[in-house]
Amino acid sequence: MSERKPYPSDLSDECWALIEPVITAWKAARLSATGYQGVHEMREIVNAILYQNRTGCQWGYLPHDLPQKGAAYYYFAAWRDDGTDQKIHDLLRWYTREQRHRSADPSLVVLDTQSKRAAAGVPAATTGKDAAKRVSGRKLGLAVDVLGLVIAVVVTAASAHENHVGARLLDKVAQQTDTAKKALVDQGFKSAVVDHGTRLGIDVEIVQRNPADKGFIPQTKRWIVERAYGILTMYRRLVREYDHRPRSAESRVYWAMTDVMTRRLTCTTALTWRDT
Asked: Which residue of 55, 83, 86, 167 is 20 to 30 Å from 259, comparing CA positions?
């Protein structure tokens, strides 16, 4: 890697070692006829994606000492379209779970959604209005395990009903693993999600809020997905919807969680707003 002053979002040597084999294999399978390797190191491409994810800048505003828009977006889009971003993420999730002495895939998942405002320029065809939350934009649906690791991601227009998002999340969970047997959801999800889960062999439980509770009361195990959303807000590119394609927005989640897991596995931390 070329000498430059590192950014807080950069991969450490230990973090890069965790994902480098997948990137190297991907690159080796796509050599040009002349054997041309390109001018940018793959580690720097990943650093550029992580920098943008963390800071929220536009592609054209990447610092001059990182690969610029053309190269960084080319690989981001290529890895998005062929599923390499998810492959890296899933391999790290399995490793993280095994490090915590758990099986590679979970038996319990927790589902929830979050509506986010869309930035100017995001196509109207992929957005909508969540009337209940008074948010115009997109809806991010997550299915996480008991460690808060992402099992499935769905991005839709904010106008999509919770049942629609929940059914899509359950479909993805079932595609990802055959070990998930139970899912916890909040009261925003209705019986249609329960019925869909039954068809997939997943017992969906709607966790009821105690009517006597006032204010925010964490619900057992259900709070884990809320924490996952909180972690993702540290990545400014995920605070609002900037991407034209919903699949790009999903890829942002995979890269954010890839960063989270590599740092957990290597016991390294990133600077937060509390750090000087």
From this structure: 167
Q: Which residues pair with 241 in a beta bridge?
A: 118
State pLDDT tens for residues 218-258: 667 889 999 999 999 999 999 999 999 999 999 999 999 99
> Is residue 112 one of the residues assigned to a domain?
yes
Q: What share of the chain is helix, strand, coil (3-state, %, to 5)?
A: 45, 15, 40
Q: Is residue 62 part of a domain?
A: no
Distance CA 246, CA 211 (A): 36
Do residues 41 and 48 make contact, with C-beta atoms less than 8 angstroms apart? no
Q: Number of structural domains, the chain?
A: 1
pLDDT in tens, 160-189: 999 999 999 999 999 999 999 999 999 889
Q: Which residues contact 52 (CB under 8 A, 6 or more apart)?
A: 58, 59, 62, 72, 237
